[in-house]
Amino acid sequence: MKKEKQYAVIGLGRFGSSVAITLYKLGYDVLAIDTDEERVQSFSNEVTHVVQADSTDEETLKALGIRNFDVVVVAIGDDMESNLLTTLLLKDLGVKYIVAKARNIQHGKMLEKIGADRVIYPERDMGQRVAHNLVSSNILDFIELSPNLSLVEFSAPKFLVDKTLAESDLRAIYSINVVAMKRGSEIIVPPRPNDKIEEGDILIVVGSNDGLRRLEDGLV
Known about the structure:
CATH class of the largest domain: Alpha Beta
Number of strands: 11
Number of domains: 2
CATH architecture of the largest domain: 3-Layer(aba) Sandwich
Strand order of the largest sheet: 3-2-1-4-5-6
Distance between the termini: 16 Å
Low-confidence stretches: none
Number of helices: 9
Structural class: alpha/beta
Mean pLDDT: 87
CATH superfamily of the largest domain: NAD(P)-binding Rossmann-like Domain
């Protein structure tokens, strides 16, 4: 069953593809848009909907109902003019939250000036990491170690506060292990079973992607 939040990803290069596929695998409705017909066809089974369209055409964006999406990711890479124009049109159409890919700092500054809510530099932000950040404000960092194993850094949710690690039973419930805890400037490595989780703590965990997905559902 798909979750309610809807995402659109414009541009299906390496970065855009990674974001779109990861969001879809996390259970979200994803509209993918690209001008390349071959690329669009290859994506037919990867996301909820995929269309061949020119994102620099305002009427096309209106027809796609782009303003109804909660987050739109502008992942156009090679064509800076299209990247900027698409971002500007999305802003004018009233899209709630725009994430735009920048080629360099100067490009990023331009995107910020024309209304991008968040600018991404792919050299520093993998597509999968961005997708997890978008769907949960508690997730601070996400690194996929393998297709079945990931490392995640997240703010301790309320349902874990005042419990010890042993009482939280994260290993049994979610198949994840807490490898470190950050408390202000203090880093507890490795944490002990009787260490209590406090409000504001940051947990660094390693575990199965399925277990982390279920834990994220509790965090959103």
